[in-house]
Amino acid sequence: MRLLSALLLAATSYAGVSTIRVPDGGIQPQVVEKDGIVHLLYYSGDPAKGDLYYTQSRDFGSTFAKPVKVNHTPGSAIAVGNIRGAQIAIGRNNRVHVAWNGSSGAQAPMYYARMNDASTAFEPERGLIHRAFGIDGGGSLAADTQGNVYVFWHAPTPGTKGEENRRVWMAKSSDDGKTFEPETVAFNEATGVCGCCGMKAYADDAGNVYVLFRSATKVVHRDIYLLTSNDHGRTFQGNDISKWNIGACVMSSASLGPSPDGVLAAWETEKQTYFERLGPHATPIAAPGTPNNRKYPVAVSNSRGETLFAWTEGTAWKKGGSVAWQVYGKDLQPEAAKGQAAGFPVWGLVAAFAKPDGSFVVVY
Hints:
Layout: E1 3-4, H1 6-9, E2 12-14, E3 17-20, E4 27-34, E5 37-44, E6 51-57, E7 64-65, E8 68-69, E9 87-90, E10 96-101, E11 110-114, E12 126-127, E13 140-143, E14 149-156, E15 166-173, E16 184-185, E17 200-203, E18 209-214, E19 224-229, E20 237-242, E21 255-257, E22 264-269, E23 272-277, E24 285-286, E25 295-301, E26 307-313, E27 321-328, E28 334-344, E29 351-354, E30 360-363
Parallel strand pairs: 3-30
Antiparallel strand pairs: 1-7, 2-3, 4-5, 5-6, 6-8, 9-10, 10-11, 11-12, 13-14, 14-15, 15-16, 17-18, 18-19, 19-20, 21-22, 22-23, 23-24, 25-26, 26-27, 27-28, 29-30
């Protein structure tokens, strides 16, 4: 495929960290690095009804391949609200999987598409919701090397309304996304779900599946819940890992991903962002300094176990801001590498990955 140098020209370097902008003026990057390939998904066009593009880099961001359009139906994706955009996962044989909320004019509220067998184009998108309608905030997906693909979203129990009746739903495929089982409730505890908030899912290759979502118990208990499955998504256990009492929809996102020492999770609470390395004695770590409406956190690790934690500052509805970051050592203590960059776009998101030399790249 023809290589583009747009990201190379837009790169800015800091101590141990470099930043690049999404190609072609796109927004809402989603990045997965696997087996030396950086997979990048991004949004382009009208924020209310735009399109999704996929590209990849085999030199860790110096150049990217010619983008491939994901959605076959023009304008079927949405970026408004930041948290309703597409998400990406890499499954068996490095097949690319994408799921996203449909735009207001789309034929389906929750779409899924996968790369074809030849890895040359995406198969036509499919709607996955059969009975759990009422999606608002963003869904998520995860995939593993055993052929399992999981798509999640939240919606009210059929026949009910209100955030207190929302549940986390899951549609699962066991054949690399070729077919999906009808959706089921992933977690039966009556936590409710924050209607306009996003979610994040991640699956490892040992059969474990993780999901972060924000509850809405009694309207005001908008805590972050971690769902964990140790049996390929057949059952989930839930834990409240971060409390926040607020009677408003905060439109938050979350992050999950691997590290050499366990799964990394990141989320927002009380206009501050946090991350932790999941485990029985995990302690959330707050972004340093004074919060300025911090949102959209992401945490990634390099092969040495060092962690880059990135987030946004000063964003709001129809308002951009800046992106900031801090690097932490294997012991989760802050290191000297930190920084901030202006020009974070309206309706944007933050993504990041690590290079083989241990340095990090922030994409926005």
